[in-house]
Specification:
The chain is of the alpha+beta class. Helices cover 67% and strands 14% of the residues. The protein is built from one helix and two strands, in the order H-E-E.
Length: 69
C-alpha cells in the first residue's frame, strides 16, 4: 500500500511540474509575440512610404529585426 501511495505522489508532482513548465513556456512565447507585434507595427509605421521593408528573425526565441532596403 505504501509503494502505491509513493508512486501516486511522484505522478502528481511530475504532472504539476509539467503543467508549470508548459505554462511558463506559453507565457514567454506570448510575451515574445506581443513584443514582436510592436516591433513590426513600428517598422511599418516608420518605413511605410520609403520603399521595401525586410523583417528578419534569427531564431525561435529571438526578437524580430526591421531593415529598410
Amino acid at each position: 500500500m505504501n509503494n502505491n501511495r509513493l508512486a501516486m505522489v511522484i505522478a502528481v508532482i511530475g504532472s504539476i511540474a509539467i503543467l508549470i513548465t508548459g505554462f511558463l513556456l506559453f507565457n514567454q512565447i506570448h510575451k515574445n509575440h506581443k513584443a514582436n507585434e510592436l516591433i513590426i507595427e513600428k517598422c511599418f509605421d516608420n518605413f511605410d512610404e520609403e520603399g521595401q521593408v525586410v523583417i528578419k528573425k534569427d531564431g525561435f526565441w529571438s526578437p524580430v529585426t526591421c531593415e529598410k532596403n
